[in-house]
Structure formats: C-alpha cells, structure tokens
C-alpha cells in the first residue's frame, strides 16, 4: 500500500512524499519510495498529514505521537483493540482524522446504498454478506465486511451482536433478526464484497469487486488532501466524498 500511495501521489503536482516509515525488520528500510528514504520513524514535525496502512500496535503508537504533534492522520488500519481505538479517538480531539476500513470510493458508495436499501426494505428482507479475499489475508471477516455488517444492522435496527459468522452447527430456521457474514479465502483475489437482500420471491445484490489495489491508494490520497483543511474530529470516507 505504501508503494501504491506513492505512485498515486506522483500523479499530483500539489502533493509530495516527504517521509516514509516501515517496521524495523522490513526489507524496505533504506529503500526509496516516492522520493523519500524509508526509515523506522516519521519526522512528524515536518509533515502536513500522515497516511497509515500498518497493523494495530504501530498504528496506536502513531496515534499517540500524532496527538502530541497535532498532525492530521488518514488511517486504514483495522483490527484495533478498544484501547487502540481510544488512542485514535484521543488523537481526533487534537487533529482531524479520517479512519476507514476501506478507502475504495466505490465501497464507500456501496455502504451508502446498503443503508438506504435496508431502511426502505425493512425487516421483510434477510441480509447476508459474503466477502472474498486472497489466501494471504490474515483477518476474517475483512474490516470492510465488518463495517458493512454494522451499517446493515443499524439500518435494519438489529443489535450489532446479532451478526452470525458462518452457520456451522445451526439448528432450525434462520432468524429474521440476524445478519449473516461469510468469509472466503482463495488464490490472489484482491477483494470482493456482496450484500444479498432477499425477500419472498425477489432478491437484490449489491456487489463491489476490486481488481487493483491502487483504488485504495487513490481514496487515501483524496482523504489526505481533504483532511488537512478540516477541524479536529473523527471522519470517514463518506465525509470526504460528500
């Protein structure tokens, strides 16, 4: 993602890669990306905004440091613990932050369409989510599927705890007040998310397929260009696109 972000930044004349960082054990340390040498830490006092695609522990450390420096952050890191999420919220009180599980502009629109569809269709339509990713993905369900499930639950006025991940061991008919979430891992699939809304005699499917990771970088760069002009607060990609 770092390389993809650097490639997208190179398409713009008004933004530039000033610094880049990776974990200490990475082979990227010392390499050049977008005109910057990859280091183990970022010079936050020299930056207008940070784009973060990492893992929970280093992301939380970044949130703490950015809070002190009051630097805007665009983060796509998922799987945060409650304490790490608290660090993100604390940062948003001192600087503007965009946090999203998926920076695809198409996925952002899909979330909005899902909300409207579920509100209009009501409880008479069952909701099922299927996500497909490459075999190397380490989390399941994906952060995008998890967020989509929250959107669906909220729109259908179902408790978020009513999500059902897979159906192994289920006995009896499917309850109306649940949202099924299913993860598939196969080959080199970049990412695919499907929301099935099924009523008696009819079915609607919302599908987003990603075929190039550059789409996430484009969304992140769009968010970075937007967030530097915002007051402190916690935003998502829907805010950016509106």
Walk me through this protein's architecture.
- This protein is α/β, with parallel strands linked by helices and 242 residues long.
- The protein folds into 2 domains: 126 residues, Rossmann fold (3-Layer(aba) Sandwich), CATH 3.40.50; 106 residues, Dihydrodipicolinate Reductase, domain 2 (2-Layer Sandwich).
- Helices cover 34% and strands 24% of the residues.
- It has 7 helices and 12 strands.
- It has a 5-stranded mixed beta sheet with strand order 8-9-7-10-11, with helices on one face.
- β2 and β3 form a beta hairpin.
- α2 runs parallel beside α3 and α4 runs parallel beside α5.
- It is elongated.
- The protein starts with a helix and ends with a helix.
- The relative contact order is 0.17.
- The mean pLDDT is 96.
Q: Can you identify the CATH class of the largest domain? A: Alpha Beta
Per DSSP, what share of the residues sits in E-state strands of 2 or more residues? 15-25%
What is the H/E order?
HEEEEHEHEHEHEEEEHEH
Structurally, the number of domains stands at: 2
| Cα-based radius of gyration, to the nearest Å | 19 Å
Lateral arrangement of strands in the main beta sheet: 8-9-7-10-11
Number of strands: 12
